[in-house]
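quick q for whoever's on today - can somebody do inverse folding on this one?? i tried earlier but teh output was garbage lol. tokens:
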């Protein structure tokens, strides 16, 4: 049954991106006033009422996509550049977006901190019970819900586990509702976090809770080595960033000559052997084997002739 507050809201409200700090779920929630990033709120999750953190206002669905700056230096924190805060705007609330129940009170924040301190001890107790019942399962983390007396244990297992006796033991210890959730190895990395091969926190842990399918085709499109050790994350699955960057590579390659294209430079035809999206350069090879690099900005498609052509300025400089 939904909270009464959900039923009596107006058609327009401010919509925010909410992240749960305990199990890294990310969702959209609406509220009737402006909330700034970092504010703790209580909202309805798939497990019940729980605490979440406002990360930013949700982008407007009718806003057109704008390309970012190619010279961006990243978010390592080593420079003084700070992202400007986008003011939230009133917008129509979709039917599948719930409202934030309320802003977290000091008492609720204190209760959340108390529950967080209990989770490690609860995990140790549960591990002892798992060994006692000789269950083939690996416990990942535990979480005490804020809105009701319930503790959730997340675990991985290679097959289905009959944990009915385990639940009975845990109920007798904690005197509250017990919920055990089986997750996959990718979800395990999303929950506990860690450093990836790039030296930054896992993408699945820091920026998303929706694990998209990743295919080897995405690695091929980005001209990456197909060595599984180089394109797999600590979870043993293909890197999530392959899926995030795939659309960008498709978009950029649509405006570039594909590999194998012949470009006429002077009286000779050069073959495109590599398209480097990151450096914005083409690698060309002549019939005699010479290699040359040319900026992508110097190549364009001629609609009239139906061929890719090199700019006159580049040809003039090259021939000189």
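ok took a stab at it. sequence:
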């Amino acid at each position: 049954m939904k909270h009464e507050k959900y039923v009596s809201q107006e058609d327009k409200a401010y919509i925010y991106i909410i992240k749960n700090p305990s199990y890294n779920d990310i969702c959209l929630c609406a509220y009737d006033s402006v909330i700034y990033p970092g504010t703790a709120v209580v909202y309805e999750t798939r497990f019940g009422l729980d605490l979440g953190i406002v990360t930013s206002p949700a982008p407007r669905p009718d806003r057109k996509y704008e390309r970012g700056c190619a010279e961006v230096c990243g978010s390592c924190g080593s420079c003084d550049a700070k992202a400007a805060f986008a003011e939230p705007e009133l917008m129509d609330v979709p039917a599948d977006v719930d409202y934030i129940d309320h802003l977290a009170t000091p008492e609720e924040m204190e209760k959340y901190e108390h529950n967080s301190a209990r989770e490690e001890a609860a995990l140790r107790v549960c591990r002892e019970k798992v060994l006692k019942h000789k269950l083939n399962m690996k416990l990942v983390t535990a979480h005490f819900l804020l809105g009701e007396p319930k503790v959730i244990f997340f675990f991985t297992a290679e097959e289905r586990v009959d944990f009915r006796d385990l639940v009975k033991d845990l109920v007798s210890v904690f005197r509250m509702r017990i919920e055990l959730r089986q997750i996959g190895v990718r979800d395990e990395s999303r929950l506990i976090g860690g450093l990836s091969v790039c030296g930054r926190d896992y993408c699945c842990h820091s920026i998303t809770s929706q694990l998209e399918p990743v295919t080897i085709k995405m690695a091929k499109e980005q001209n990456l080595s197909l060595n599984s050790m180089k394109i797999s994350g600590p979870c043993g699955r293909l890197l999530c960033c392959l899926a995030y960057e795939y659309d960008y590579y498709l978009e950029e390659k649509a405006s570039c000559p594909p590999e194998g294209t012949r470009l006429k430079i002077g009286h000779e035809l050069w073959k495109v052997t590599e398209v480097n999206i990151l450096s914005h350069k083409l690698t060309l090879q002549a019939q005699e084997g010479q290699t040359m690099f040319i900026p992508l900005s110097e190549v364009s498609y001629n609609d009239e002739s139906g061929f890719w052509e090199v700019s006159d300025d580049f040809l003039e400089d090259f021939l000189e």
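fwiw Confidence is low (pLDDT under 50) at residues 1-9, 74-84. also DSSP finds nine helices and 16 strands in the chain. so keep that in mind when u check it
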